[in-house]
Every structure is written in C-alpha cells, then in structure tokens.
Design brief:
Layout (H helix, E strand, L loop, with lengths): L28 H13 L3 H4 L1
Length: 49
Amino acid sequence: MIVTTTQTVEHRSIGEYLGQVTGQSVWEEQMAKEIMTGIASGPSESAAG
C-alpha cells in the first residue's frame, strides 16, 4: 500500500481516495514572536564562528 498526499502516483492507479488531510497547530503568541525575532536578527555569533 502506498499512502501519499498527492493527487497522482506515477505509473500507479488510485484504488481509494480517503479525502483531504488537514492539520492544525496552536502557537503561543510569545513563542511566535521569539522565533520571528530570531529570524529577523540573523545568525548568532556562535553560529557564524
């Protein structure tokens, strides 16, 4: 059995379509701000070294 998130599989026929798969994540607002601040400020000195 091949499980995929695409609509086609090369050289194969689709035997059963199970529907759309969705996901949800909840981010704490502060965590998202910290991540964005880290991205915006660039690499740290230890990473650049």
